[in-house]
């Protein structure tokens, strides 16, 4: 066999290896691009008017902004403890003393909440309307300092109720963003979240619930800290009176306030540091 023939074979082998490596890198880059595209499309990460401290460092949460003398509800930019990202949040500076960060809001059905893991991780929706802040942001806001949780509910007849928890936190993504801390309930809506304590977050494409024969997120059309399956589900399908009876268990639900045959028309979840 000639030297030129051996060289040609070697060149073909090298070319094949480079092609395989190139495809792998292209696929890896494509996966990262998809993840970045989802992240960049989230309003949570888009730049807004910046409100920082006098020394130029960002605020950690809405309560810090309130304590700086800013008492107008609106969209602000913060950097939660443990995060290297600036994020946009909706701050409620009026309810129960103010300083609340809105982490979830349902008001009119304008935003689809039946979404996958990546979108629930990074957040989606409209900071002035329906939104999910994002599990990663909620983790950074709750994991490093004590927070209370306020849940506000309105039924289809306009009757309101609330549930206030003295302590609330979730775990990291590696831990499935599980509901790690929840205690100290008070209010008139009933405690319909404590049953979910310790449960990982389940989405349509990542089943982490305890139901052995199905995915609760698929069955009830929305992501949540499902057990088997729920006593509350605030990310369910937004319903109206024209919905068929088959959907009666798949709306926005808080058992302690109304059972799952009676849908809620509004829901809001807010957190605030305890210090």
From TrEMBL:
GO terms for cellular component: extracellular space. Residues 1-22 form the signal peptide. PROSITE patterns: FIBRINOGEN_C_1, FIBRINOGEN_C_2. Keywords: Disulfide bond, Signal. Gene3D superfamilies: Gamma Fibrinogen, chain A, domain 1. It comes from the Eukaryota. Residues 53-275 form the Fibrinogen C-terminal domain. This is Fibrinogen C domain-containing protein 1-B-like. It comes from Diabrotica virgifera virgifera (western corn rootworm).
């Amino acid at each position: 066999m000639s030297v030129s023939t051996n060289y040609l074979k070697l060149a073909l082998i090298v070319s094949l290896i480079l092609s395989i490596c190139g495809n792998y890198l292209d696929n890896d880059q494509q996966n990262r691009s998809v993840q970045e595209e989802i992240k960049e499309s989230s309003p949570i990460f888009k730049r807004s008017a910046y409100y920082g401290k006098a020394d130029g460092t960002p605020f950690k949460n809405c309560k810090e902004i309130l304590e700086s003398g800013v008492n107008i509800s609106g969209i602000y930019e913060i950097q939660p403890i443990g995060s290297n990202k600036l994020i946009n949040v909706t701050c409620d500076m009026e309810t129960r003393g103010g300083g609340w960060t809105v982490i979830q809001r349902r008001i009119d059905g304008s935003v689809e909440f039946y979404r996958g893991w990546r979108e629930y991780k990074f957040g989606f929706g409209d900071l002035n309307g329906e939104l999910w802040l994002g599990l990663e942001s909620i983790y950074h806001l709750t994991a490093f300092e004590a927070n209370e949780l306020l849940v506000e509910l309105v039924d289809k007849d306009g009757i309101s109720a609330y549930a206030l928890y003295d302590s609330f936190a979730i775990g990291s993504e590696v831990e499935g963003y599980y509901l790690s801390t929840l205690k100290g309930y008070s209010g008139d809506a009933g405690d319909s979240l404590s049953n979910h304590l310790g449960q990982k977050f389940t989405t349509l494409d990542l089943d982490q619930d305890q139901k052995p024969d199905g995915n609760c997120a698929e069955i009830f059309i929305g992501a949540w800290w499902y057990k088997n399956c729920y006593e509350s589900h605030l990310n369910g399908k937004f319903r109206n009176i024209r919905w068929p009876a088959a959907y009666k268990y798949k709306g926005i639900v808080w058992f302690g306030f109304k059972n799952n045959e009676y849908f809620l028309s509004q829901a809001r979840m807010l957190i605030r540091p305890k210090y």
